[in-house]
Amino acid sequence: MTISRPPRRVFRHIVASIVLVATCATSATGFAADISEPPKNIALARLQTLSNRASELALSALGLIGIRYRMGGNTAESGLDCSGLVRLVFQEAWGETLPRTSEEISRVGEKVDSHDMQPGDLVFYNTLRRGFSHVGIYLGDNKFIHSPSSGGQVRVESMDLGYWKSRFNGARRISDPEHP
Protein backbone atom coordinates (compact mmCIF):
# COMPACT_ATOMS: atom_id res chain seq x y z
CA MET A 1 0.00 0.00 0.00
CA THR A 2 1.34 3.41 -0.96
CA ILE A 3 0.63 6.38 1.27
CA SER A 4 0.51 9.63 -0.62
CA ARG A 5 1.21 12.99 0.91
CA PRO A 6 -1.38 15.77 0.80
CA PRO A 7 -1.25 18.19 -2.16
CA ARG A 8 1.54 20.72 -1.70
CA ARG A 9 -0.83 23.70 -1.66
CA VAL A 10 -2.89 22.22 1.20
CA PHE A 11 0.21 21.33 3.16
CA ARG A 12 1.72 24.77 2.57
CA HIS A 13 -1.45 26.42 3.85
CA ILE A 14 -1.20 24.54 7.14
CA VAL A 15 2.52 25.10 7.44
CA ALA A 16 2.15 28.79 6.54
CA SER A 17 -0.07 29.32 9.56
CA ILE A 18 2.40 27.57 11.87
CA VAL A 19 5.42 29.43 10.52
CA LEU A 20 3.65 32.80 10.58
CA VAL A 21 2.80 32.38 14.26
CA ALA A 22 6.34 31.21 15.06
CA THR A 23 7.93 34.04 13.07
CA CYS A 24 5.86 36.70 14.79
CA ALA A 25 6.46 35.19 18.21
CA THR A 26 10.23 35.09 17.74
CA SER A 27 10.76 38.22 15.68
CA ALA A 28 13.86 40.30 16.36
CA THR A 29 11.64 43.05 17.78
CA GLY A 30 10.67 40.74 20.63
CA PHE A 31 6.92 41.04 20.17
CA ALA A 32 4.25 39.88 17.80
CA ALA A 33 3.74 42.75 15.37
CA ASP A 34 0.25 44.01 14.54
CA ILE A 35 0.29 43.62 10.77
CA SER A 36 -2.80 45.82 10.36
CA GLU A 37 -0.77 48.90 11.35
CA PRO A 38 1.96 50.24 9.07
CA PRO A 39 5.44 50.29 10.64
CA LYS A 40 6.41 53.46 12.48
CA ASN A 41 9.86 53.69 10.95
CA ILE A 42 11.89 52.46 8.00
CA ALA A 43 14.12 50.15 10.08
CA LEU A 44 11.09 48.30 11.44
CA ALA A 45 9.58 48.09 7.93
CA ARG A 46 12.82 46.57 6.63
CA LEU A 47 12.95 44.10 9.52
CA GLN A 48 9.36 42.98 8.81
CA THR A 49 10.12 42.63 5.09
CA LEU A 50 13.23 40.55 5.78
CA SER A 51 11.28 38.39 8.22
CA ASN A 52 8.56 37.85 5.60
CA ARG A 53 11.14 36.95 2.94
CA ALA A 54 12.83 34.45 5.30
CA SER A 55 9.39 32.99 6.01
CA GLU A 56 8.96 32.45 2.27
CA LEU A 57 12.10 30.30 2.29
CA ALA A 58 10.91 28.33 5.32
CA LEU A 59 7.45 27.78 3.83
CA SER A 60 8.87 26.66 0.53
CA ALA A 61 11.18 24.20 2.32
CA LEU A 62 8.49 22.87 4.66
CA GLY A 63 6.27 22.22 1.67
CA LEU A 64 8.83 19.62 0.54
CA ILE A 65 8.76 17.46 3.69
CA GLY A 66 8.47 13.82 2.75
CA ILE A 67 10.14 14.11 -0.67
CA ARG A 68 12.51 11.17 -1.00
CA TYR A 69 16.27 11.57 -1.07
CA ARG A 70 17.99 10.99 -4.39
CA MET A 71 21.70 11.57 -4.89
CA GLY A 72 22.12 14.35 -7.44
CA GLY A 73 18.36 14.95 -7.36
CA ASN A 74 17.08 18.43 -7.99
CA THR A 75 13.31 18.11 -8.50
CA ALA A 76 10.52 17.22 -6.09
CA GLU A 77 9.17 14.71 -8.60
CA SER A 78 12.37 12.69 -8.96
CA GLY A 79 13.83 13.27 -5.48
CA LEU A 80 16.25 15.71 -3.88
CA ASP A 81 19.67 15.60 -2.33
CA CYS A 82 20.64 18.24 0.25
CA SER A 83 21.92 20.85 -2.20
CA GLY A 84 19.08 20.08 -4.60
CA LEU A 85 16.62 20.90 -1.81
CA VAL A 86 18.35 24.20 -1.01
CA ARG A 87 18.59 25.17 -4.67
CA LEU A 88 14.92 24.36 -5.31
CA VAL A 89 13.76 26.33 -2.26
CA PHE A 90 15.77 29.43 -3.17
CA GLN A 91 14.63 29.18 -6.79
CA GLU A 92 10.94 28.84 -5.83
CA ALA A 93 10.92 31.47 -3.08
CA TRP A 94 13.30 34.11 -4.44
CA GLY A 95 14.05 33.18 -8.03
CA GLU A 96 17.70 32.85 -6.94
CA THR A 97 19.90 30.23 -8.65
CA LEU A 98 22.52 28.77 -6.31
CA PRO A 99 25.52 26.60 -7.23
CA ARG A 100 24.98 22.83 -7.49
CA THR A 101 26.97 21.36 -4.58
CA SER A 102 26.92 22.10 -0.86
CA GLU A 103 30.63 22.94 -0.97
CA GLU A 104 30.04 25.49 -3.76
CA ILE A 105 27.00 26.91 -1.93
CA SER A 106 29.18 27.35 1.17
CA ARG A 107 31.11 30.09 -0.68
CA VAL A 108 27.98 32.17 -1.44
CA GLY A 109 26.57 34.83 0.85
CA GLU A 110 28.04 35.97 4.12
CA LYS A 111 29.25 34.00 7.12
CA VAL A 112 26.91 34.06 10.13
CA ASP A 113 27.84 33.25 13.73
CA SER A 114 25.78 30.40 15.16
CA HIS A 115 24.25 32.68 17.82
CA ASP A 116 23.12 35.14 15.09
CA MET A 117 21.38 32.63 12.81
CA GLN A 118 17.94 33.52 11.48
CA PRO A 119 15.32 31.45 9.64
CA GLY A 120 16.37 31.07 6.02
CA ASP A 121 20.10 30.92 6.78
CA LEU A 122 22.00 27.93 5.44
CA VAL A 123 23.63 25.49 7.86
CA PHE A 124 26.55 23.30 6.80
CA TYR A 125 27.85 20.00 8.13
CA ASN A 126 30.76 17.63 7.65
CA THR A 127 29.02 14.31 6.99
CA LEU A 128 31.48 12.74 4.55
CA ARG A 129 34.75 13.43 6.37
CA ARG A 130 35.16 16.67 4.47
CA GLY A 131 33.90 20.12 5.27
CA PHE A 132 30.68 21.49 3.86
CA SER A 133 29.53 18.12 2.53
CA HIS A 134 25.93 18.64 3.73
CA VAL A 135 23.62 21.67 3.76
CA GLY A 136 20.21 22.48 5.21
CA ILE A 137 18.02 25.51 5.85
CA TYR A 138 17.75 26.92 9.36
CA LEU A 139 14.15 27.27 10.58
CA GLY A 140 14.75 28.84 14.00
CA ASP A 141 14.65 27.32 17.49
CA ASN A 142 17.79 25.27 16.63
CA LYS A 143 15.91 23.30 13.97
CA PHE A 144 16.79 22.85 10.31
CA ILE A 145 15.27 21.17 7.29
CA HIS A 146 17.33 19.00 4.97
CA SER A 147 17.36 15.99 2.68
CA PRO A 148 19.43 13.55 4.74
CA SER A 149 20.75 10.55 2.82
CA SER A 150 19.90 7.48 0.79
CA GLY A 151 16.65 5.92 2.00
CA GLY A 152 15.62 9.12 3.79
CA GLN A 153 13.16 11.89 3.09
CA VAL A 154 13.20 15.67 3.48
CA ARG A 155 12.66 16.31 7.18
CA VAL A 156 13.16 18.71 10.07
CA GLU A 157 15.84 17.91 12.65
CA SER A 158 17.24 19.43 15.80
CA MET A 159 20.72 20.88 15.63
CA ASP A 160 21.07 19.88 19.29
CA LEU A 161 21.36 16.18 18.44
CA GLY A 162 24.90 14.96 19.07
CA TYR A 163 25.37 13.81 15.46
CA TRP A 164 24.62 17.25 14.03
CA LYS A 165 26.27 19.21 16.84
CA SER A 166 29.61 17.45 16.33
CA ARG A 167 29.56 17.93 12.55
CA PHE A 168 28.46 21.58 12.33
CA ASN A 169 30.69 23.58 9.92
CA GLY A 170 28.98 26.97 10.12
CA ALA A 171 26.19 29.05 8.65
CA ARG A 172 25.80 31.49 5.79
CA ARG A 173 23.17 34.04 4.86
CA ILE A 174 22.19 34.51 1.24
CA SER A 175 21.06 38.06 0.54
CA ASP A 176 17.55 38.40 -0.74
CA PRO A 177 17.90 39.67 -4.34
CA GLU A 178 14.98 42.06 -3.80
CA HIS A 179 16.42 43.45 -0.55
CA PRO A 180 20.24 43.27 -0.63
CATH topology-level name: endopeptidase fold (from Nostoc punctiforme)
Shape, please? globular
The number of domains is 1
CATH superfamily (homologous) name: endopeptidase domain like (from Nostoc punctiforme)
By CATH, the architecture is named Alpha-Beta Complex
Beta-strand segment tally: 8
What's the helix count? Answer: 5
How is the main sheet built? Answer: 6 strands, antiparallel
Report mean pLDDT, rounded to a whole number.
Answer: 80
Order of SSEs, N→C? HHEEHHEEEEEHE
Strand content: 15-25%
Write down the CATH class. Answer: Alpha Beta
Describe this protein's structure.
- This protein is of the alpha+beta class.
- It has a single domain (8-173), classed as Alpha-Beta Complex (endopeptidase fold (from Nostoc punctiforme)), CATH 3.90.1720.
- The chain contains five helices and eight strands; from the N terminus they run ααββααβββββαβ.
- It has helices spanning 8-25, 42-62, 82-94, 102-105, 162-167; strands spanning 74-75, 79-80, 110-112, 122-125, 134-140, 143-146, 155-158, 168-173.
- The strands form two sheets. It has a six-stranded antiparallel β-sheet with strand order 3-8-4-5-6-7.
- A hairpin with a 3-residue loop joins strand 1 and strand 2 (79-80).
- The longest helix has 21 residues, at 42-62.
- The chain is globular.
